Structure formats: structure tokens, C-alpha cells
From TrEMBL:
This is Dimethylhistidine N-methyltransferase. The lineage of its organism: Bacteria, Pseudomonadati, Bacteroidota, Flavobacteriia, Flavobacteriales. It holds the Pfam family Methyltransf_33. Keywords: Methyltransferase, Transferase. One of its GO terms (biological process) is methylation. The keyword Glycoprotein does not apply. Residues 22-326 form the Histidine-specific methyltransferase SAM-dependent domain. InterPro entries: EgtD_Methyltrsf_superfamily, MeTrfase_dom, MeTrfase_EgtD-like, SAM-dependent_MTases_sf. GO terms for molecular function: methyltransferase activity. It comes from Chryseobacterium taichungense. The keyword Calcium does not apply.
Length: 327
């Protein structure tokens, strides 16, 4: 009852590198300069993100864990676990630490479902597989290794059962407003009438609480950002001098945008795969947005992209919500 399905050959390692190089050069040749935080997660980045999730300042993971641990039956009700059998698809499942609580509950109440975690990292999927085999040997699992939409399309062809999509962790906050809308519309177009989506949103809260979560004194978030420059050095033959860049975090409590930048500490030229990129002293690279939402902003996003909100589960502090949407 376990299967691994990978991306088709057309997405080979070389294609990934070409894509990465192209995005990096386009981003650094733009004004203002930018890089995509989706590239944060190589092996070192994965490890740094694990450390971030364990930091006392980084409340997001603990809040959503609170929901999955303590409000599991509410989630089960929200996704209509007592109705027809379904495929439970998790986008960017990672080690599935939070969703394991739901899987355990669903199997205890005798739900008929197949768990389909999607992740770009084969490494983390094998960790997940090992954990689940040990903890929940009886559930059906299809591991889907690849990009979200490519694997979602694959999942749609694997069975005709209704789909429940989990998109946890506040990952939607790492998209710009436009990207988030495009993502939701694409999801809406792919899904059918009976399908359900559960999305994790980090709520607007005391601005200091937000800012502190992304500007920790231990410097882990700084290292997480700077690791992308090291990754460019490693994988794209770059020669960034990491000590010449400094992390800067900002939070705008009105728009809810928490943003990460790297500041160039001097005039410098960096070579990436033979291309020279010039930086002025104090010029910044826009690295990441971690968008915070109000409930009305979540409602607008759902309505604008065709969905209907059918439920909402908050943690005990009311800092984070899992919002349940129906097609
Ligand atoms: C994965 N994502 C939801 C994290 C966030 O909170 O935006 C990534 C992160 N960046 C800095 N710290 C954590």
C-alpha cells in the first residue's frame, strides 16, 4: 500500500539547474534586485528551516501544531471525513509532522482515504515514508515527488475519488498577492465540485511578534537567507563573498508584508556562471515575503478566486488559522 511516483523525465536535474540559473540571473539583473525564496530549500536550507521552526520566536509551526494536535476532529469534520472516500493530498508535505496527527485520527475513526504527499525533495519524502511506515503502517500512501501542479495533475489521473488538499505552514504567505491569486485560480480550475482545500494563514498580530519571528538574535534567519548566496556559489559557479552581505527584516503592519532583504555592504561585482552582476553599497536584494492576513483579506482571496469558505480553525492564541474552502 505504498507507491512512489516521480516527475516525468522532462524535468531532469539539468533542467532544474537551467531554470535556477535563469531565475537567478533574471532576478539579479532587475531593478530592484530580487531572488526567489523557493530556492532557499537545498539540504542546508532544509536544516536551517528545521532550526527556525524550533526557535522560540518562530510561533507559526507551534500554532499550527496546536490546531492539528488539539482540534483534529474539527479538521476531520471540516474536510467531511465521514462522507465519500477521498485522496488526501498535501502540498509541500515535508516530514508531515503536523498532518500525521490528522492521519492518525482518520485511521482511528476508520476513514477510507489515500494519503498523497507532494514534495520537490525526494530526501524529505523518504524521511516521511520511514516515519509513517513506523507510526501508521496500515494507511495507503502514494508519494509524489515533484512540483506542486505537475504532481497534482498526476494525482487527478490516479483515481477518480474526491480530493482534499492540504496547504499548510503559511506557505501561501511566501507568494506575492498576484502569485497567490494565480495559485488559487489554478487550484480551482484543477479541482472538482466535491473537493475541499485547507489552507494555513498566518494572521496579522502585534507587529513586534511578527518581526521577532523573522529577525531572531541567534542569526538563524539571516543564515537561512545568506545560504541562497552560498547555494548559488555551489550550484551555479558563483563567487559571492557572504561576509559582504547583511540580512535586513521589515514588517509593515498595514499591508501585513513581512519582508527579508540582503544588503550589499560595499560596491562589488559578483560573477555567476560567467555573468558579472554589479552591486552598489547599500543596494538590497529582495529575498522573501511572508504575508500576514486579516480574516477579511482571506475572505477576499477565496471569493476572488472562485472558492467558498466553509470553515475556519484557529489555534488557542488566535494567531494562525486553517481556513477550509470548497470549490
Ligand atoms: C515556509 N514559510 C512559511 C516560512 C515563513 O514563515 O514565511 C519561511 C521562513 N522564512 C523565514 N523564516 C521562515
Amino acid at each position: 500500500n505504498l507507491q512512489l511516483i516521480k516527475e516525468s523525465k522532462k524535468s531532469s536535474e539539468k533542467d532544474h539547474t537551467d531554470h535556477f540559473l535563469n531565475d537567478v540571473l533574471t532576478g539579479l539583473q532587475s531593478t530592484p534586485k530580487h531572488l526567489s525564496s523557493k530556492y532557499f530549500y537545498d539540504k542546508t536550507g532544509d536544516e536551517l528551516f528545521q532550526k527556525i521552526m524550533a526557535m522560540p520566536e518562530y510561533y507559526l509551526t507551534r500554532c499550527e501544531l496546536d490546531i492539528f494536535k488539539n482540534k483534529t476532529s474539527e479538521i476531520a469534520k471540516g474536510i467531511r471525513a465521514d462522507q465519500e472516500p477521498f485522496d488526501l493530498i498535501e502540498l509541500g508535505a515535508g516530514d508531515a509532522m503536523k498532518s500525521t496527527y490528522l492521519l492518525k485520527h482518520l485511521s482511528e475513526i476508520g476513514t477510507d482515504f489515500t494519503y498523497m504527499p507532494i514534495d520537490i525533495s525526494g530526501n524529505i519524502l523518504s524521511v516521511l515514508e520511514k516515519n509513517l511506515k513506523r507510526q501508521l503502517p496500515a494507511i495507503d500512501i502514494e508519494l509524489l515527488e515533484g512540483e506542486y501542479f505537475e504532481m497534482l495533475e498526476k494525482a487527478m489521473t490516479l483515481s477518480s475519488r474526491r480530493k482534499v488538499i492540504l496547504f499548510l505552514g503559511g506557505n501561501i504567505g511566501n507568494m506575492s498577492r498576484k502569485e497567490a491569486e494565480k495559485f488559487c485560480i489554478a487550484l480551482y480550475q484543477l479541482l472538482n465540485k466535491e473537493d475541499i482545500v485547507l489552507i494555513g494563514f498566518d494572521l496579522k498580530k502585534n507587529p513586534y511578534t511578527v518581526l521577532n519571528a523573522y529577525s531572531d538574535k541567534s542569526g538563524i534567519t539571516a543564515a537561512f537567507n545568506l545560504n541562497l548566496l552560498s547555494r548559488i556559489n555551489r550550484e551555479l559557479d558563483g563567487n559571492f563573498n557572504i561576509a559582504d552581505f547583511q540580512h535586513y527584516e521589515s514588517y509593515d503592519p498595514i499591508t501585513g508584508a513581512c519582508k527579508s532583504f540582503l544588503i550589499s555592504l560595499r560596491d562589488q561585482k559578483v560573477n555567476i556562471a560567467g555573468q558579472l552582476i554589479s552591486f552598489e553599497e547599500n543596494e538590497v536584494i529582495d529575498m522573501e515575503v511572508s504575508q500576514k492576513f486579516s480574516r477579511s483579506e482571506i475572505r477576499k482571496l477565496a471569493e476572488k478566486t472562485g472558492f467558498r469558505i466553509t470553515g475556519e480553525i484557529a489555534d488557542s492564541k488566535d494567531w494562525f488559522i486553517d481556513s477550509i474552502w470548497k470549490v
